[in-house]
Amino acid sequence: MSIFDDLKAAIGSEWTDFTEHEFVKQLGEGTLPLEVFQDYLVQDYHFLVQFARANALAAYKSRTLADITSATQAVQAILHETELHKRLTAQWGIAEDELLAAPEKRTTVAYTRYVLDAGMSGDLLDLHVALSPCTIGYAEIGAALAPARLSHEEHPYAEWISEYAGAEFQESAQAATTRITALTTGGVSAQRFDELVDIFRTATRLEAAFWQQAIDSVEKL
User: Fold this and answer.
1) Is position 134 annotated as part of the catalytic site?
2) For a Cys-Cys bond, which of 49, 97, 137, 198 suits 133, CB 3.0-4.6 Å?
3) Stated pTM of the model
4) How many CB atoms sit inside 10 A of residue 17's CB?
5) Secondary structure of 123-168 in HEC code, one letter for each residue
6) Cβ–Cβ contacts within 10 Å for residue 43, how many?
7) Domain segments of the chain as ranges
8) What is the pLDDT of residues 72-126, one digit of tens each?
C-alpha cells in the first residue's frame, strides 16, 4: 500500500464519485452527448494551461535536480496532452485562437486556482497531492475504459481513451505516485496525514465537479 492508496482509502466513495462519475460512464459507453464532451474539452484545455503552471511551480519548489527534472518532464507531458485537445477541437472547426478566447468557467477557475494555491501556500508534497487526482485519476479512468474502446469498432471517444490508457500517460501517472511516495519516505505524522487528506479530498471533489460542469452546460441550454 502506497500513501496514495492510503489517501484514496481515507476519502472513501468520494474517489469513485470522481472516477465513476456519470460523465465517465457515458464517455466509456460512447453515449456521452458530443456537445457535453466539447464543452469539457474546451474547459480542460484551459485547465491544462494552469496545470502546466502548477507543475512549473513544482520545479521552483524543488530542492534537488531530480525533483526539478521530474517536474519538467510533467510539464512536457501536459504540453503533449494539449495537442490532443487541439486536434479534436480542430475536427469541429474550432480554431486555436477561438479555443484560447473561450472563457474559463467557475469550476475550472476554482479547481485550477485551488491547486496553485495549495502549492504556493504549502510545500512540494502539498502541491503534488493536489495535482494527483488529475494525473493519477485520469490514468485509472483511461485503463478502466480501454476495454470498452476495444470492443466498440467506432467508439466516438476512442482517441481520448487511448490517450489516457496509453503507455506514456500511464508512465506519467506512475511517476506521480512515485514522487508522492518519495516525499513521504519515513512516514508522516497523523496530523500531517490529515492535512494531506483535506487537500486530496478537495481536489477530488473539484474533479467530480469538473465533469458535472460539462453535463450541466447542456442541461441548462
Assistant:
1) yes
2) 137
3) 0.91
4) 17
5) CHHHHHHHHHHHHHHHHHHHHHHHHHHHHCCCCCCHHHHHHHHCHH
6) 22
7) 36-219
8) 988 988 888 888 888 888 887 888 888 888 899 999 999 999 999 999 999 999 9
CATH number for the domain whose boundaries are 36-219: 1.20.910.10
Q: Pick the catalytic residue from 20, 22, 83, 134.
A: 134
Question: Cell 504540453 identifies what position?
Answer: 79
How is residue 195 written as a grid cell? 492535512
Candidate list 14, 98, 154, 207, residue with the active-site label: 207
Rounded to whole angstroms, the Cα distance separating 3 from 9 reads 10
How many residues are present in the chain? 221
Spatial separation of the C-alpha atoms in residues 55 and 74, rounded to whole Å: 7
- The type of residue at 174 is Q
Residue 83 among the catalytic residues:
no
Q: Please state the three-class secondary structure of 36-69 as a single string.
A: HHHHHHHHHHHHHHHHHHHHHHHHHHCCCHHHHH
Region of 187 please: left (phi>0), alpha (psi -120 to 50) or beta: left
